[in-house]
Design brief:
Elements lengths: L1 E3 L3 H12 L4 E4 L13 E3 H19 E3 L2 E5 L5 E6 L11 E4 L1 H13 L4 E4 L2 E7 L6 E7 L5 E6 L2 E3 L6 H6 L3 E3 L4 E9 L10 E4 L6 E5 L4 E7 L8 H5 L12 E10 L2 E3 L3 E2 L2 E3 L5 E2 L7 H20 L9 H26 L6 H11 L5 H5 L26 H4 L5 E2 L7 E3 L4 E4 L7 H5 L8
Parallel strand pairs: 1-2, 1-12, 2-8, 5-15, 12-21
Antiparallel strand pairs: 3-7, 4-7, 5-6, 9-10, 10-11, 13-19, 14-17, 14-18, 15-16, 16-17, 19-22, 20-21, 23-24, 24-25
Organism: Actinoplanes regularis
InterPro entries: FAD-bd, FAD/NAD-bd_sf, PheA/TfdB_FAD_monoxygenase
Protein name: 3-(3-hydroxy-phenyl)propionate hydroxylase
């Protein structure tokens, strides 16, 4: 197995596969984790996924729970506030701020302790070729010496970002979901804490849209929307958040223009080559789900791929990856674009209407809960979900279930906790409930 790209998505996928016994080679252009911050937020579901890889303690050390988001006007007056639960339904804080280089170091360290995984830095992949039969060929060159090489693999995961070489090799294009926006991203370090809200502030103004957040203690990020050839004095723009802190005392780590866009690849798989993360989808940052979506891609695909490579499942199982993930990614991107427009779109004439609407809507019962769960689709009724809807498996069970899967039942004589290799615990008859076999769900190797 070859994984192209050692960002959070590629490293997570490699850890998941190596834990399931799959030999993994990760190829990455940079020798060390990219030193500048990019992603800065993950939610409680992603925390739970990564905690399941043995990273809970490390994640708590490198991240901090965020209290929520405030929508403010251009004078930083609060229009609405959405709080985040310090203990969400997955058993972890609902919003977590972090510095991406810290996370990548944590993931690399975990991967380095797995005997079936290898990471090679300083390697640039330039071609991926898939013959009608046989393994996939990955061609690469050394960034330092220029020496070229080739490796063959049973499967290739393209986790190599928005300018993905793997996506180009697949011949996949983009399905654009909305217009592009240019923003300036500013990351800075302050020698003293700023007297500002320690959650996320979104300036809701069509001409001066901006985002501010404390990432980790002493580290801050601003994002400013750009209009045409706007000249931008960064230190003047960040001054409203500084209080009594001298703007000259801040160290600017980065100030770089970015284009925020919404798009999904028009196909995510060709036989044994797959796209994950930014190689498969791009989202504006308004609901903080860019990196999270890539981690979810890895969680969805890796167990299926491990079973197919091990001969325990047919190749058709792999078709469910795109079937399940692509519609979800599109819905998430469209939600981010809608929320972004509500917060920063419109015109001078509609600005008073936006302020009034935000104040009114956020006072309605249930709006805050709904606004903080827009990234998670509801479980629809089906063979495993009854009329009352689904609910999450308690996080306390995660250590017992490990990397396998289980059928958990309660409240009936045939309540079961089953793993593919053995029955772990059972109350009543050791049998799969008839309602599942009647629905065409078959279990082998129990």
């Amino acid at each position: 197995m070859v994984i192209v790209g050692a960002g959070p998505t590629g490293l997570t996928a490699a850890i998941m596969l190596a834990r399931r016994g799959v030999e993994c080679l990760v190829l990455e252009r940079f020798v060390e984790p990219y030193p500048l911050p990019r992603a800065v937020h993950f939610d409680d579901e992603v925390f739970r996924i990564l905690a399941g890889l043995g990273l809970a303690g490390g994640l708590r050390e490198i991240s901090r729970p965020a209290p929520g988001m405030r929508l403010v006007d251009r004078r930083l007056r609060v229009l609405a506030e959405f709080t985040r639960d310090p203990l969400g339904p997955h058993g972890f804080p609902q919003a977590n701020m972090f510095d991406q280089p810290d996370l990548e170091r944590l993931l690399r360290d975990r991967l380095g302790r797995l005997p079936r995984a290898t990471i090679r830095g300083g390697i640039e992949v330039y071609d991926v070729a898939q013959p009608p039969s046989g393994p996939v060929s990955v061609r690469y060159r050394s960034v330092v010496s220029g020496a070229e090489g080739e490796v063959r693999a049973d499967a290739v995961l393209g986790c190599d970002g928005a300018n993905s070489v793997v996506r180009a090799a697949l011949g996949a294009g983009w399905e654009e979901l909305g217009s592009e926006q240019r923003w300036l991203v500013v990351d800075a370090v302050s020698p003293e804490p700023l007297a500002a809200y320690d959650g996320v502030q979104q300036v809701c103004d069509h001409t001066r849209a901006a985002t501010f957040m404390m990432v980790t203690p002493g580290r801050y990020r601003w994002e400013f929307r750009l209009h045409g050839g706007d000249p931008l004095d960064v230190r003047a723009r960040i001054r409203p958040w500084l209080g009594g802190t001298d703007p000259g005392a801040l160290t600017i780590l980065r100030q770089a223009p970015y284009t925020f866009r919404g798009a999904v690849a028009d196909r995510w798989r060709d036989r044994r080559v797959f796209l994950l993360g930014d190689a498969a989808h791009l989202t504006p940052p308004f609901i903080g789900q860019g990196m999270c979506a890539g981690i979810r891609d890895a969680a969805n695909l890796t167990w299926k791929l491990a079973m197919v490579l091990d001969g325990r499942a047919e190749d058709r199982l792999l078709t469910t990856y795109e079937t399940e993930r692509r519609p979800y990614a599109k819905a998430m991107i469209r939600m981010a674009m809608l929320i972004g427009w509500v917060m920063t779109g419109g015109s001078r004439r509609t600005a008073p209407l936006r302020r009034s609407l935000l104040r009114t809507v956020t006072r309605l019962p249930g709006v805050e809960r709904r606004a903080t769960t827009v990234a998670w689709p509801a479980l629809r009724r089906g063979p495993l979900v009854g009329p009352g809807g689904g609910r999450l498996c308690p996080p306390a069970l995660d250590p017992r279930l490990g990397d396998g899967f289980a059928l958990v039942g309660s409240g009936t004589p045939e309540a079961l906790l089953i793993r593919p290799d053995r029955i772990v615990a059972a109350a009543g008859r050791h049998a799969v409930p008839e309602r599942l076999t009647a629905a065409g769900i078959r279990f082998s190797g129990l």
